[in-house]
Each structure stands twice: as structure tokens, then as C-alpha cells.
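step 4 of 6: structure.
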Amino acid sequence: MNKNDDLNDRFMEELLREDARGREADEKLLAAVDAAMGGEEEVVNVTPLRRERSRAPYAWAAALTVSAAGVLGYMGWRGSEERMDVALLEPMSGRAVLEPAVHEAMFGDPAVLMNEAGQEVGSSQMQKKPTAPGVASPLIVADPYGDVESEGRLEAKRDELQGGLKKESDATPGNMPEPSKPAAPSSSMAQVVRGEEGASDAAARREVLVGEESVFGRAPSMPGQPEPLDDIGGGGAFRLDAPPVDRERYGQLVDQPWKTPQLANFSTFSVDVDTASYTNIRRMLQQGVAISPDAVRIEECINYFDYQYPAPTKGGPFAVLVDVATCPWAADHHLVKIGLKGMEVPEQQRPSSNLVFLIDVSGSMNDSAKLPLLVDAMKVLVEELDERDRVSMVVYAGAEGVVLNPTRINEEGRGQLLAALDKLSSGGSTNGGAGITRAYQLAQENFVEGGVNRVILATDGDFNVGTTGQGDLVKLVKERAQKGVFLSVLGFGSGNINDAMLEAITNDGNGNYFYIDSQKESRKVFLHDLSGTLVTIAKDVKIQVDFNPAKVAAYRLIGYANRILRDEDFNNDKVDAGDIGAGHTVTALYEIVPVGVALPPMGGVDASKYEVPVAKPGVQSPEWLTVKLRYKRPDGDKSTLLEVPVAEAPVAWEKAAGDFQFAAGVALFGMKLRQSEDANDAGWDLVRTLAKMGSARDLHGYRAEFLTLVDKAAGQERRRVIPMPENGIEAPPAE
Amino acid sequence: MAGLIDFGAYRFRRVDSSPPRGSSPVPPGRSRASALRGVGEENSDCGHNVVAEGEQGVETMQSAILMKEDLDRVEFSRLAREHHRLLLVYARSLVRDASDAQELVQEALVAAWKNLTRFDVTRDFGSWLRGIVRNKWKDHCRRMGRRPEFAEEELGELEASISAWEAKGTETGAVFGALEHCRGRLPEAFSEAIDTYYYEGLSGEEAAEKLGINPSTMRKRLERARTALRDCMDQQSTI
């Protein structure tokens, strides 16, 4: 039998290809399914365009006209197809500013194009899909295996290939039948995934991590949990079209499970100074919207607040402060707080800056919670700038354009900038890709040595980036960060904020991400904390905690779910991590179980039949753990190591410092919103108590505001536990 | 979400007989944020009205309705996420064309959602989904005016294998896990061939050149490696 006709063999073939592709979920497909689940049409309608870049109305017109039966739908589809020719041409002309490397990544990337195919799957008009090259070409060109072609074409190709193979074999009869040993093939997932174009290194690293994590087993509380990290960071989850529904998108977060130093001494993660998740939660609580657990990044909630950590004294960029206290929500456990404090840069000493505002003026920004708030936020920033600073402004919608050339912010310049801001109006569809490239180009042209060089992107995140994927955007942003141009992202609006995307592009040392929900928040970011927002004092800041098995039976990192690094990445200076701005504080909490206390459920795998479990004795040391920290100077590429051993006896949490109590309260708040099992025994009262005890010092009233959110969250949960309807979801039948 | 109602991944069903959300003009769950906007904090007793699902335009009930719908949805989305990659593999082995395969899977998942009531809880969810993919594939063939390329017998055989591989693993992605395990056990010549061709993405010729073998040997070796992998996976699942 011809192997090609053997279904079993075909399955193996496809399985291998899928496996080789990595563990990335097909987010487009899932999003399309999700959109269709809410719809009334029997058949899913997502725009059939493959390369369509805009969320233009006609795509939806086309999609909506497609009813299950054909003629209308067919015409709609045909219409889209014709327009696609335009769409295919457009990127070429609009993209003159792209650098060749970017261009190549955008057009030559199988992974990305496959994703686009995911977009394409929505068409119900399968039978009508022509095999005309113009339509299928992106995939055909891109897919190294040719398995995306129509069957007819495939046959042709197969014959060709076989012919080719035959010819070649004829031509080289003297070949050795057995292989001479080649360079070791990269069989590990790690290399494969890394090698995959388009997948960002970070994404790859996380994926690899999943494999490793799974050795440990996931938290037992997650039956049927989807493959974990494939979607963290949003994996390509931005759309080329917009379903006509409000949907906020969050990458899925999987909390760090309990681990034991017997098996895993190290816990390694990248710092996160973003605060967007907290602001977003605040907005949702204030609007009375139910909170998706995946919207809650606990570390961002904790790091929203300022803590009074001692400033560095010895000339280094940070000081590290570690506290140990009893754990408020688990009597036998301890809570270890690691606090980092970045060196302060007084406003007068702030280096001069070269800022490029990149502003989304697409139709979706036309909302009182978006563009007006954006203009207001920018004005707050402008007021804080002075002659040291130069600002340019690029807007993007259907096409990008420079609306303000680099302008020094003296009195005249300020006037020009404010006038340009006032003129902003929204309309058109979004093409973020060209805009961001243009913005970086301007930033590079006006680079200030030793100064602040930063692109400030203001958007609702509901953009696509030309024909490219999120992976490429991340790559671009990362490359530029290495050259010293950093990114700040300001997220606006609700309803369709693409949180996952915005977070992903600022992860891993690419910049910082703020969610602006109010004028008050603009002021926090640009007025109270301008130096922190603009001036990066250290980059690629990684933390590795080394636990002493003789003292610690188990540990759990709270939050940082999508910031985990592989242990070996800690010493690898090529692996990016988060930045720290001037004066910023970063806080991380570990819940630890001292030796001798009952272990929490760890899930995990059965012990190997062939291995005798040997307890690691550990060295005799009073230390619980050692915090190791690596960072680079903003312009450096070699990291510096700091080590802080921790041996303190825990104090009772009631007696701990106010900042400790407050951070613990915020952590518990986040755990409860994430419905963490570890917070099962703790009530909202405890959150409130911790927050109150920790609010003695509250400069801008942020902590008081937090208390009001705790009340709202508690109220929301009370309403949620109202008994479920009888006719809702039946309890699982007894097995 | 799972903390609220404890339903196992494969063991839930929608009991109400109406199709999900029917033709309500503002389908709940569709726009969480907008539906809730303007719904104050005060509607604390709305939960009692959940039975009124399907009634239209009753804004104040929506948050309670959303809860139920969302739970169901969340669970389904989770299952879709869990299964879609293997379904794509399956669909591609049926139709070859990747975008056709994606359409099949998407249609199948949507149909599964709309017909959740018909899911027999004693059956395996993945297997049920593959059944729907098969049906969609047959429809597809019919529309193309082609005879389905594979006979029932062959389809049944593959289904039996996949079910067995899936049943062996307890975690999601069991089939991929089995594959990984078996890749580790391949004789070196086979595993080199598989690695270079599939995982390094070289073309047949390039891979052959890299391994210093004749391209036709390469092709043969890949075939045999796939067979060996499948045999290994079958064995694994019967242990």
C-alpha cells in the first residue's frame, strides 16, 4: 500500500508535525470558536481573508451575510477575496519603512502564517475555496511541508518531490547507505521550539518550561486543565478582524505549584514592575464586572503600591530587603517577602529624554474612556517635561503618520505638542505594525546617548500589526530594547482590551505596561512617578531563590505565573528579563512550609519504581534560603550578581512591618480572585485586616482605595455563591 | 471557576433542552462587560431568577445568568483548548489541507458546543469530538463531490488507536506525551531521520544530505520510523 494513502501513517505524520510545531495553541481557532459559541449563526463566520490587515467593516459585512446556505455568503466571500488583492498589495507599499529583517520575519514565518490560517478557518464556504494561487499562496509559500495545499496541488508536488528524490538518488548512486554521523540533531523540544522562527524566545522558554513543570505535576486542583503555558502571554491572540462583541482577552495563567527543595532547589523568575493588572481589576470591580481569574496577575497587584524599602547606599542600583514572618492564611507556614528597591533619580537629575508617542487613533479608540483619557494622560506627561526633552508623535490607524516631528519641549514646543494632541481624532482601522516601526525609527534617529530613549505606545491593544504576529512584534521590541530604546505601553478602555497582547510585548525586558483607567491613574504614572516610568536603572533583572532542604519542606511562589524562568537561564545573560525604573520597588512573596510541618497537596507523579528515594540531607545551616539576583546596567550586556542569605527567625505576621502586612493582604486578595486553593481557608476579613494594618502610611491614598476594592470583591463573591440553578449544570454522575 | 461547581473535565452536560442561548437578541455571555454596565452593585438577589434564562431584556438578571453560562462556557473553552491540537492533527490526516482541516475542527467544536446536550457522559469527550470531525469531513467530501477517501474500517482502526493512547495518559496531551516517550526509544538512525526532517524542518533532500544518506533511503527510513513510533505507542497503551 502506498504509505501516503494509509490513514494511520498520515496521522503519525501530522502528529509529528504538530509536535514539532511546539505546544502553541492555535489561538485564532480558539478565538473563532469562542466567538461562534456566542453567535446565532449555525456556521461560524470569521473573515475568510488571510492577509487582511484591517478590522474593516466590510469583513464583517461579508461575514455576517454568510448564512449557512450559500449564494449571499458566497458573494460576500467573493467580495472579500477581491479586496484581498488590495490587502495583499497594501502591506508592500505601506511597509517601506520596514527593515529587511523585520520584513522577512513578517512574510517568511510559517508559524505566524499558520496562525493566520487559523483566522481563515472561519469560512464556512469550504467547498468554494478556490485553489487559485493568489488565495492560498501565503500558506503554500510558507509551509515547509506543503501540507496546506489542496489535494490536487499536493499530488503534483508529491510527484515532483518524488521525482526529484529519484533523480537525485540516481545521480548519486555511490552514497553510503548508512549515515555518517552528523552533528547531533537537536532533538530536544527546547531547541526545536527555540529554533522556530517567529516564536519569541520568551515564549519558547516558557513552553519548554511547561514540559519541565509537568514532571512535577500540576496542582491537583486543576482537572482537565488545558496545556498550561501555551497561552500565557496571549500567544498570538490578537485578531485581524473584530467580532462584534465585547471581549477582553487574557492569557491563561497557571499558578506556580507547591514544590519541594528535595526535588527543585531553585525557583527562578523575572521581575515584573508592571501594574496594569491591578488597575484593570480596579476598573472591573468598580463597574461590578465579574473578574476573570486570568486577569489577575498577583505580582502586578502587589507592585502597584509603593513600599518603604531602604534605598541602596553602596552605589549599586538596588537594595534587597528580605522579611520572614508567619503566614497569615496558613498558621504553620511562613511567608518570605523579597523586596527590591531601585535607586532614586531625583526629577532635577533626570537625564534628558527622547520620547516618541505612538498613538492609536483607530475607530476602536473612539470612546470616552479611551482617546480623551489618552489625550489627558499625554498632557499630564507633557506638563512634566521641559527643555531637556524632545518629543515626537506618530499616529496610526489605517496608515501611520508622523504628526509631530521631534520637538524640544520649551515653551514653543510645548504649545505645538499640545496643539497636536488636541487635533487627534479617531477613525479608521488599525495598523499598529507600520506605526511601531516608524516610531522606533524616529526614536533611533534622535537617540540621546546616556538619556532616556523611549517609545510610548498608547492603545486599547485592539490592533493588528500588519501581517505579522505577536511573536515578531515582541522580537522587534526586544531588539530595539537591546539598542537602548525602551517601550512603555499605556492600555486604555474596556470591553476589548487585549491585555494579553499588551503584556506580552512588554514582558522580558522590553518595557513597562500601565493600564490607564482614569485621570488619577495618569497622574500616578506620569506625575508622581515620572522618573520611575521613564528612567530605567537596571535591566534583565532576574531572581533565583535557592532553598535549603534542611529547613524548607516546600515552597510556592505567589504570582509571577508568567514570569517564570528556567533555572539555567539565571546565569545566561542572553535571556532577557524585566527592567526596573528609578525608585521602583519590586516585591515577591514565597509561602514556605518549614521542615516538620505537614506538606500541602503537591500533586505530581508517582515515585519511580526503580529509584530509591533518597532524602537530600542539606548542609547544616540556619539559613532558610538565599536570594540571588542578577541585573544589567541599562546599557550593559554583562550581568552583576547579588546574593542575600536569609536566616532570620520568623516574626508573627501581626507584628511584622506594615509593608509586609499590606503586601500579604494584596497577595491574598489576588489569590482569592484567582480562586486559589491555598486561599480556601482565608476570608475577605483577613484581607481587610492585613490591608488595614498595613495602611498606616498611605501617601497618595492608594491603600485606602484598595480597601474599598476589597469590600467590592467580597460583595461580589457573596452574590456569586447564590445557589446555582437546578436546571443549570448537572452534578457529575457517580462513577 | 472550577471551585464553584465541581464538575470533572469530561463529565458535565447541559441539562436544559433549549439550545444554548437560542435566539435571544442580547445573548448573555456574549458581552460580559457591556451587559453588566449599568447593573449596579445592588442586585444582590438576582440569583433567584436564574431559572428565567431565555427571558429577554431583563437586564438585572443578567449577572446571574452570566455566571451559569460563563461556567459552562469556560469549561467548554477549556476542553476546546485541551483538544484542539489533536483534533487538528486528526483533521489534517483526513483532508491534508491545513486550512480545510482548521475549518473542520472549528465547525466541529462549534457543533459540539451547540449539541452538548447530546454528549453521552459515559463516553470519552475527545472521541466524541473526533466523531463530529468525521461527520464534518464527510459533509465536506460530499460538498466537494468526492467519495470519502477512507473506509469506515480504517477510520475505526485509527479511532481505536487514538482512544487507547489517550486513555493511557492521565494528563492532557497524552498522545503527544506518548509520542515523546516513543521518540526517545527509537533506534538512532530513525530518530535522526525524524529529528532532522520534522523537528529541524529540513526538506527531504536537505535532511538526507545532512545525514549523508540517499534521499530515497531517507524517505524509507522516515516511513519505517513512523511505523515504529506507532507500534511503540500502541504497545505503551496496552501495558
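step 5 of 6: annotate
 - Chain B has a mean pLDDT of 70.
 - Chain B touches chain A through 129 residues (CB under 8 Å).
step 6 of 6: archive
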